[in-house]
Amino acid sequence: MGNQGESSPCEAQDAVGFIKSMRQLKERSGLTYRELEERAARNGDVLARSTLSDVLRRTNLPRPEMLAAFVRACGEGERVDLWLDARDQIAARTPVVPATAPAGSTSDQSDEDRPPHLERRPQPQNAEVAGIQPRRFKARTVALASTLIVPLLAVVAWGLIPDDSGTANTQGSPADGWVTIRPARTPDLCLTDGRDRDGAYDNAVAVQLPCAQITVPRTYLEPAGEGLYRIQWHHPVEGKGCLTVMSTGEVKGMLEPRNDCAQATLFRLEPVSADETEGFRIRPANSSRCLGLVDDDTVEGAEAIEEPCTGADDQRFLVRTG
Asked: Do residues 270 and 280 lie in contact, with contact meaning Cβ atoms separated by under 8 Å?
């Protein structure tokens, strides 16, 4: 493991230094994000590699249970208390700045917003990484006046959007407007924003997560003529982004929200069979391919991706109103 002092959390004076120590610990472990996730699972912990990748890029303190799982996965289980004590000392010195949560949000208060005396130390096993990671749309630029006024108005308006589970469309074409898009095999999961599981990309991509845990962004299916649609994501702070199939890079074929909806991918939604309740194939208009899920996965966090049309079950999606 090398010199333990190289990643001593006690030397960190603030959250930035603490995250730097975490990155050093990961580098010294020699483990990839995927290997850390697998090690954590063997320890009885939950440590999603996409979450860890995001935390190590941030400048905020991690949640205690996530930190403990990370340190154990790196092979330093005997030093978990040392890391937690160092984290608590920094948290106690950090001013608490309340965050504005989207209307209707039921997620737990974030770690950086919770006063240190309310934080709970993680259990040694079966700790869960809670919450959905911060969303970041591509090339988002907002004027100063908009950052002060628009988010507040958007949060208020967000509460006016219907939030029922919806019903599956039973017509030859999907209902437009506010919808959820769900893999037909796992209808309790919805396509929403997350991070690629290998941590190869900084921005949000479309992944499947439990619908019951998702409050934002909301999905809007916009008709674009000739049977084509734009798939919009609306976030009370980030604004509107339209899903676009990425054509290059480490996450080629995955979908991310782009500000310029005029240049976004148009999609054709085709009924799988005469019984529309079986779902739709979602096909980019500019290719002969279909949307599916990476590695045909049914797990939470699996990424949506453009791939050859096979007729496999991972390429069937339910479109539900509401």
From this structure: yes
Give bridge partners of residue 213 from the DSSP assignment.
none
Note whether 58 and 165 are same-domain residues.
Answer: no
Cα dihedral sign, 142-144-147-150: negative
Total count of residues recorded for the chain: 322
Q: Around Cβ 69, how many Cβ atoms within 10 Å? A: 33
Question: Are 206 and 308 found together in one domain?
Answer: yes
Q: Are residues 64 and 182 in the same domain?
A: no
Question: What is the domain count for the chain?
Answer: 2
Q: What is the rounded CA–CA span in Å between residue 259 and residue 242?
A: 7
Range of the domain at 29: 4-118
Greatest alpha-carbon pair distance for the chain in Å reads 65
pTM of this structure: 0.51
Residues 108 and 154 in one domain: no
The pLDDT tens digits of the residues spanning 222-274 come to: 999 988 999 999 987 778 899 999 988 888 999 999 988 988 999 999 998 76
Report yes or no on 170 lying in a domain: yes
Q: Tell how strand 239-245 and strand 228-235 pair up.
A: antiparallel
> Which residue did the predictor score with more confidence, 105 or 213?
213
Considering only CA atoms, which of 264, 245, 263 is closest in space to residue 205?
245
Residues 234 and 199 in one domain: yes
How are beta strands 218-225 and 177-183 bridged, if at all? antiparallel
Where do we find the tokens 């700045």?
Answer: 97
The verdict on 177 and 315 lying in the same domain is yes
Instruction: Provide the pLDDT confidence category of residue 180 given band limits of 50, 70 and 90.
Output: very high
